[in-house]
Design goal:
This protein is α/β, with parallel strands linked by helices. The protein is 38% helix and 12% strand. The protein folds into 3 domains: 44 residues; 55 residues; 64 residues, Photosystem II 12 kDa extrinsic protein (DNA polymerase, domain 1).
């Protein structure tokens, strides 16, 4: 019994169509399962949290000063790294590299004083805690608040002044902040530095 050619062609076409539809269905199912898998979703969620970005101005003793876009969870260490890292003449002793960055923040990496030796980080372990002067250009509100005679409001005024004026040029600039009179300045001038 011979099958007509038309019937054979119809069977081949239907079989081919079913095979193509099946292959497409399997491909879409595999792709959908991979996108919805629990292992893939947490990675995407952790990446999404970095979508919140801040802009930080890094200047001073860094290789590439400028404004950098960073994740909102970033620390000063990352900001300085993005700016090409600290130069050989940088004084990182007073810079809290673990401090979180804030949007619009200016980070000024100070240069080493004339008396410091290159490569020497300073005596941070030998002295009493808090004995090293705090850098006015890099200190956080919390660090300034720990100074005697400086409360949270004055600490915030110091940061606001620093932001408005592009940083402190000298310790004497501290006297330009409302609430810091001659008496308070005298008690603070040895506890802070550039």
């Amino acid at each position: 019994m011979e099958v007509p050619r038309q019937q054979v062609a119809l069977y081949v076409a239907v079989t081919l169509a079913i095979a193509l539809i099946g292959a497409r269905y399997l491909k879409e199912t595999d792709h959908g399962a991979a996108a919805a898998s629990p292992a893939a979703r947490p990675t995407r969620v952790s990446i999404d949290r970095s979508d919140s970005r801040v802009y930080v101005h890094v200047t001073g003793a860094v290789r590439r000063p400028g404004v950098y876009r960073l994740p909102s969870w970033a620390r000063l260490d990352l900001a300085i790294t993005r700016a090409g890292g600290a130069t050989r003449g940088a004084d990182l002793v007073g810079v809290n590299l673990a401090a979180k960055v804030a949007d619009g923040q200016q980070v000024i990496v100070p240069r080493r004083g004339a008396g410091a030796e290159p490569g020497v980080a300073g005596d941070s372990a030998g002295g009493a805690a808090g004995s090293a002067p705090i850098s006015l250009n890099t200190a956080t509100v919390q660090q300034l608040d720990e100074l005697e005679g400086v409360g949270p409001a004055t600490a915030q005024k110091i940061l606001d002044w620093r932001k408005q004026h592009g940083g402190f040029k000298s310790v004497e600039d501290l006297q330009q902040i409302s609430g810091i009179g001659p008496k308070r300045f005298e008690s603070l001038k040895d506890k802070v530095r550039m």
